[in-house]
Amino acid sequence: MGKKKRSKAPDRPHPARSVKPSRRLRASGALVVGIDLGGTNMQFGVVDPRHRLLGRDGKKTKVDEGSEAVLDRLVDGVREVCAQAGVKPKDLEGVGIGAPGAIDPANGVVLEAPNLRWNNMPLAQILRKRLGTRVVVDNDVNAAVYGEWKLGAAKGCADFMGVWLGTGVGGGLVFNNRLYAGGFFTAGEIGHMMLVPGAPMGRRSVEQNCSRTAVVDRLVSLIRANHKSRLTDLTKGDLSQVRSKLVAQAYKDGDKLTRRVIDECAEMIGCHIGSCVTLLSLPLVVMGGGLSEALGEDFVKLVERAARASAFPSRCKDVRVVLSQLLDDAGLLGAALLAREALD
To answer: In what order do the strands lie in the sheet with 94-99?
Structure first.
């Protein structure tokens, strides 16, 4: 993901700022590592008690190489950011990881993660053995939502929902000033809700219509069906290179095909968010993920307009839909916070 403008408030994390950990921090085990594990990328950061990043790194997930390769990259990433911060993994207070899919946070198990092709993966146990420190696992968007609640766009809000558009579509909920997981630990999984029940298989859910993967697939299919698009020039004809940043560039350049597909996506996800607002009476929705962040405020405003149009009753039409403030760092900072608080 590209670099975005970040808040300069002194109490906010600022990953561009290089901070050398003191001996006191290292001796007290006050450092935690946050990991944002996605279907396409994984991000790592060493976080101090003031929520500053002392070391950071990113890697491709490379799901096609298999589970063991993904686990090896997770371990390598932790070791590399620890080296940047001048600590050893065993000296950390702990590691927090946000993983996609349905999670059992009490046992640190990834129950089902379609993007990773994992089922019943005992992630916390595996990483604890290999890193020699305690590990906390939660859903990746739950972690990002937690970060936005404590440090970002939802700070001070008792009830809100987060919706993340990336490789898939994820969501998280805060109710009554608590991160809400539900009886089966899956609350907030908006991406797997049905959007078009009568559509062919593979085109029915929110994720299958509104994720970055779905948007790119639709654009590429239309271009190959002889629809003109600036994306052909931006990729020099190699449509396998279409990613969120190029979609956003084509959209901002006024490409008619990209604008139509993105506007339809905003309408679909906005209407669905409006239905969630009606159901849960939520005053705020925070949007994040690679696609939302690349498209920016204009896209979020379209989603907000569609959400307000479909929300009921009239007072629910005052719902605010805003863009993530922490952007790329929401997941890893939220995971670090969850780890620190759970271990405390």
So the answer is: 53-60, 41-47, 32-37, 94-99, 135-139
State the helix-helix crossing angle for 256-280 and 297-310, rounded to 10 degrees: 50
The CA-based diameter of the chain, rounded to the nearest angstrom, is 63
φ, ψ of residue 144 to 5 degrees: the values are -65, -40
CA torsion, ordered 196, 197, 198, 200, to nearest 10 deg: 80
Per-residue pLDDT band at 94 (split at 50, 70, 90): very high
Residue 269 is predicted with a pLDDT of: 98
Would you list the DSSP string of 26-95? HHHT--EEEEEE-SSEEEEEEE-TTS-EEEEEEEE--GGG-HHHHHHHHHHHHHHHHHHHT--GGGSSEE
Contacts of 237 (CB under 8 A, 6+ apart): none
Task: Yes or no: say if 34 and 332 are a contact pair by the CB < 8 Å rule.
Answer: yes
Average the pLDDT over 326-337 and give the result: 95
